[in-house]
Amino acid sequence: MAVYEHPLNEKIRLFSRLEFLIHRFNFYTQNPAPEHCHSALMVLLELYNLSSRLDVKSATLNVLDWQTQALQRMNELEDVDKERLQDLLNKLDERAERLHEFRGQLGQHLKSHSFLNMLKQRTMIAGGINGFDLPLFNFWMTRPEADRVADLESWVEPFRIAYDAVKMVLELIRQSSTSVNQVARDGFYQSTLNGNREFQMLRIELPDDARHFPEVSAGKQRFSIRFVNADHLEERSKQIVEDIEFSLMIC
Description:
The protein is an alpha+beta fold. The chain has seven helices and seven strands; from the N terminus they run βαααααααββββββ. A hairpin with a 3-residue loop joins β5 (212-218) and β6 (222-229). α2 crosses α7 (145-174) and α3 (56-74) packs across α7. The chain is globular and about 60 Å long. It starts with a strand and ends with a strand.
């Protein structure tokens, strides 16, 4: 199944971006050839930009606190697995402590990093990060593989601490609902959101061979899904005017 996620607030959007970037970083460092290390550096600069514009640490701590309170309220239910619940609470508390121990904002450790700031300045130029314009970059790329990986892991470590917490929050959110089969009449589906609950994410599932994709518009009280044809990527996609079956999770 192809899964499309749509965050329902800015914090979850931020966490989804962090997750996306860390997954890419991990992929490149699993096979640390020079070309992959180059790509990992580009992802690291994206993480740096993400943290410089938004206070990732504060947002993560706030959501950890929100998730902890939600789980603590579940502790009052009779049919809840108390042991598993306490284990989740302990893990959330552990991740919050690790974030508190890290001083300053996320990415602050890179603000005065001469090498990375030099690379950042060159990202606006097509092909600007190369060995002939930047001899220091060439020097770094020709260092032993173990040294390059050690540098990358050192630079990304604070982001991994945040991601470790974000990963758990996102997993709990994704597991908080069950999938329900729905039909979009003439390619369009609309529904309301229960104002008494704080929803975080929509998850839409389609068959792998589907030749269409969902475009979501969501507010605090309602959301709509428009299914769009994807057969001609070189042209602007149009809404499909036929009934579309899909699975929906409101998390």
